[in-house]
Specification:
The complex is a heterodimer of chains A (324) and B (420).
Chain A lengths: L1 H33 L13 E6 L8 E6 L8 E6 L2 E5 L2 E7 L7 E6 L5 E6 L3 E7 L5 E9 L10 E8 L4 E5 L4 E4 L2 E2 L6 E7 L5 E8 L2 E8 L4 E7 L2 E5 L5 E8 L5 E8 L5 E3 L11 E4 L2 E6 L2 E6 L7 E4 L2 E7 L1
Parallel strand pairs in A: 12-17
Antiparallel strand pairs in A: 1-2, 1-26, 2-3, 4-5, 5-6, 6-7, 8-9, 9-10, 10-11, 12-13, 14-15, 15-16, 16-17, 18-19, 19-20, 20-21, 22-23, 23-24, 24-25
Chain B lengths: L6 H19 L3 H32 L3 H29 L2 H22 L3 H29 L5 H29 L4 H22 L15 H5 L5 H16 L3 H12 L6 H26 L1 H10 L1 H9 L5 H29 L5 H30 L1 H25 L8
Helix pairs in contact in B: 2-4, 2-5, 2-6, 2-7, 3-4, 3-5, 3-15, 4-5, 4-7, 5-15, 6-11, 6-14, 9-14, 9-15, 9-16, 11-12, 11-14, 12-14, 12-16, 13-14, 13-16, 15-16
Classes of the chains: A mainly beta (324), B mainly alpha (420).
Chain lengths: 324, 420
């Protein structure tokens, strides 16, 4: 009986040490995250690519940049960790874990040099982020329930338009008046995701989903309206010259796989790209002839005209954004 | 006149008698140790239960509805495991070992949560195994409590155990949210600390709790027949019937607190405080009410415990009466728990032969849980279709009827040893 008591004392000591060690190391990790050096600028000679670096487990998702001329040769790290990222010459959006008790996500609205200008609380799990070319508006999509676009009806998204100057959300896309074939869509199952802005910032494109189908909408922020211009389009991305949309299209007999396509806005001609994997990402245009996307922990590039083969562009990276 | 020359002998004799008496009244060490096991295990499991919804939403993208459905199924599975483990423990006369197996399984699940790293399928499987662990341990542990305590102090013994158990259930979430405040999103740290508490709890039962009292472990245990014949014992059968009836007529905790919150228009953030308030009352009252039950009759206290819920239900139908009324309501809910949960285990233990105690306690626990599950489904459906008032009124009437039936049946099957 005595030896059992001794054994228990030993066990209790071990438990206390393990538990205390776990708590202390978590608190220290928290402390180092909080006192990490202020974010450093990642500005390079344009054009350059900003992305989430995944090569160091300790700071997975660190905002990093590299020159388009020699991608990956030199990586400039910011010290800032993001769950989703977008940037252009006017600034950017880094969606990061908030500092609140429950650690909900917040959008950090960044100046071109990487300083945080504003913070905005978001609800749900981040999915997409974009900033308009002139830096007036930003857009974020979060999953309020569910965490993937793969299962229709089992997720719900919230897409916010943000005034980048004041740091306030100006509208939820669900408050816009959207028409499909001349009729206003007022179904309860309407969802929006994946905004892309035109050069004038006021005009935008996004995905509308209703009744189990997806559509491409073109809208105006100032008028709070949008209308459907094409079907079966998810996560649109407008080319720098403003003539084409790169997007995900559901294909196959069961409609269970995505293929990247490019849509010519004038002729409505669809061109399938040479990437044959089913990839869930919002495309980013590298230039008017090439696109970038993240898949399985790397950034890939593919020609916009459907020729050639996809090529690995950057290893251990995702969320590409081109600053031109 | 006869006089005692040396009164010190008398005084010493009197003292010895007193000591003997208080010894009988005292709750045995084994019960306290089992209470400690439950306290530590509840800290461990409630830490995880408090943060799991957050974890599932942030790390895995679950919806509450999915979680609710899956959880209901798991509870059902655990109920049937409980029957098997109760019988197995009786059969081999190894209550401590079977209970330890349940505690061990739940402890291992906490460590597995760290390894799962947010994979939805794995988390589902782990949560199920955790529930199975709870199903395995409950009946043998209660049997062990009842076998260690003297028949006269069963109420107090279960009272001490339930008070310690509830203390753990209140400390767990506090600890979890404290850790989250220190290190937001450090879910793995919480799982690891939870695992440490579970191992400590397991250590107490394995290393410190004595095994089944010497009572010849060689004698063959009861056959399956003996276990199924349990339901022929009039007193025990009556207890199973009334426990099921009462279980079906009560509003489940979650719904009751939700109804209180709606009725008084409380902020959603206060919701967990309702649980805390009722648990606090339960914790404080479990021992005194258990002792009271030993003294004035367990059946009486059991019936009175359910009657305490009637004014709470009635208050939901009357105009909202403010915070003092809420505090009183929560105190009544806690007192009701104190007068029914452990007391039912004591009542059932007293009606069962020692050989089949694990099986019998498993039957009554399973019946109660099944009845509560039905009640919860029924109340939810009534609330949705007919409104909250109708649902509350229906439950109130059903509960009043069930109380009358209970009182009648308990008096009818009162045993000569009298604990009615």
């Amino acid at each position: 009986m005595r030896s059992r008591g001794g054994l228990f004392a030993l066990l209790a000591g071990a438990c206390v040490i393990v538990a205390a060690g776990a708590v202390i190391s978590a608190v220290i990790a928290q402390g180092t995250a909080a006192t990490a050096p202020a974010a450093r600028s990642v500005v390079l000679a344009r054009p350059y690519v900003v992305f989430r670096s995944l090569d160091r487990a300790a700071r997975a998702g660190e905002l990093t940049s590299t020159a388009v001329a020699a991608p990956g040769r030199r990586r400039v790290r910011s010290g800032r960790v993001c769950a989703r990222l977008y940037a252009n010459a006017t600034g950017g959006i880094c969606i990061a874990r908030g500092r609140s008790l429950l650690g909900a996500y917040e959008a950090e609205l960044l100046a071109p040099d990487g300083r945080v200008r504003h913070r905005l609380d978001l609800s749900g799990v981040p999915s997409r982020a974009r900033v308009s070319p002139d830096g007036r508006y930003g857009a974020t999509t979060t999953f309020v329930t569910g965490h993937s676009y793969a299962a229709p009806g089992e997720f719900s998204t919230q897409t916010l338009l943000i005034d980048m100057r004041t740091g306030k959300a100006i509208a939820d896309l669900e408050s816009f008046t959207v028409s499909l074939a001349g009729r206003v869509v007022d179904a309860a199952d309407v969802q929006f995701w994946g905004v892309t802005f035109a050069r004038d910032s006021d005009r935008f494109y996004a995905t509308l989903a209703t009744a189990g189908k997806t559509h491409l909408i073109e809208g105006r922020v100032s008028a709070r309206t949008a209308h459907v211009i094409h079907d079966n389009v998810e996560c649109p991305s407008l080319s720098p010259d403003g003539t084409r949309i790169g997007y995900k299209k559901l294909v196959g007999a069961k409609g269970r796989a995505w293929r990247f396509h490019v849509l010519d806005l004038a002729s409505k001609a669809e061109t399938p790209l040479s990437e044959t994997r089913s990839v869930d990402d919002q495309l980013e245009w590298l230039d008017d002839g090439h696109l970038l996307y993240g898949e399985k922990g790397a950034i890939w590039t593919v020609s916009a005209d459907g020729t050639g083969a996809p090529r690995r562009y950057l290893s251990d990276a995702d969320s590409p954004a081109v600053v031109r | 006149m006869y006089q005692v020359q040396d009164s010190s002998a008398l005084v010493a004799g009197h003292r010895a008698l007193l000591r003997e008496r208080s010894k009988e009244r005292r709750v045995p060490r084994t019960v306290v140790l089992l209470g400690l096991t439950s306290l530590l295990t509840d800290i461990s499991s409630e830490m995880v239960a408090a943060v799991l919804p957050l974890y599932l939403v942030y790390a895995a993208g679950f919806t509450p509805l999915q979680l609710g459905i899956v959880d209901g199924l798991y509870r059902g599975a655990a109920a049937f495991v409980a029957l098997a483990s109760g019988f197995a423990a009786d059969r081999r006369k190894r209550h401590k070992e079977v209970a330890s197996l349940g505690y061990g399984l739940s402890a291992a699940c906490k460590l597995a949560l760290v390894a799962a790293g947010g994979a939805v399928g794995a988390i589902g499987a782990i949560v199920m195994l955790d529930r199975v662990g709870k199903g395995i341990r409950t009946a043998p542990r209660d049997a062990l409590i009842s076998l260690s305590a003297s028949p006269k102090t069963l109420g107090a013994a279960f009272g001490v155990h339930r008070a310690m158990d509830t203390t753990g259930a209140m400390l767990g979430p506090l600890l979890a949210f404290g850790l989250l405040a220190l290190a937001p999103l450090a879910f793995n740290t919480i799982f690891l600390v939870s695992f440490c508490f579970a191992v400590l709890g397991l250590g107490v039962i394995v290393l410190l709790v004595p095994g089944n009292p010497a009572r010849s472990a060689r004698e063959p245990g009861p056959s399956l027949r003996a276990a199924t014949d349990l339901l022929v014992v009039p007193r025990f059968r009556a207890l199973v019937v009334v426990a099921s009836l009462l279980g079906m007529a009560t509003i489940s905790d979650a719904f009751l607190y939700l109804a209180l919150q709606r009725h008084l228009e409380l902020a959603p953030l206060t919701f967990p405080l309702l649980f805390v308030g009722a648990s606090l009352a339960y914790m404080l009252l479990a021992v005194p009410i258990g002792r009271l039950a030993d003294r004035v009759g367990r059946g009486r206290v059991f019936v009175a415990g359910y009657a305490l819920l009637l004014p709470v239900y009635a208050s939901l139908l009357l105009p909202a009466a403010g915070l003092p009324a809420l505090a009183l309501g929560l105190a009544l809910v806690g007192a009701s728990y104190a007068a029914t949960d452990g007391v039912l285990a004591a009542l059932a233990s007293a009606s069962l032969e020692e050989e089949v105690r694990g099986s019998g306690l498993a039957v009554i626990t399973t019946a109660t849980n099944l009845a509560r599950f039905l009640a919860s489904v029924g109340f939810g459906a009534l609330w949705t279709w007919a409104g909250l008032d109708v649902a509350v009124m229906a439950c109130g009437i059903a509960l009043a009827l069930a109380i009358v039936v209970t009182a009648t049946l308990l008096v009818k099957t009162r045993e000569p040893t009298s604990d009615a």
